[in-house]
Amino acid sequence: QVQLVESGGGLVQSAGSLRLSCVASGFTFSTYGMNWYRQAPGKERELVSLISAAGGSTIYADSVKGRCTISRDNAKNTLYLQMDSLNPEDTAVYYCNTGIWRGQGTQVTISS
Length: 112
Known about the structure:
By secondary structure, the protein is mainly beta. It is globular, with a radius of gyration of 13 Å.
């Protein structure tokens, strides 16, 4: 069955960094575009970043542009999100998603 398992979240101070990972199984990872989105309490879901199946094309939300880098390793069936210069507005649960399936999410909390 399809599984997407995120990890790498945690509590960090403002200006800190985190690297999120999402390990995929149960489908042909290398043929799917992937994305990260986030959901903060009381806020609408926000698409953070997209990456094409081969990894050659990426898109970022304006709110994270210049601070985040999405990447993937198709040999390892793994999606990444490197996040730098974090601020409290980045606090949310982060999900990896294929557009069909999503993981359980990983909590990111940024303290001021």
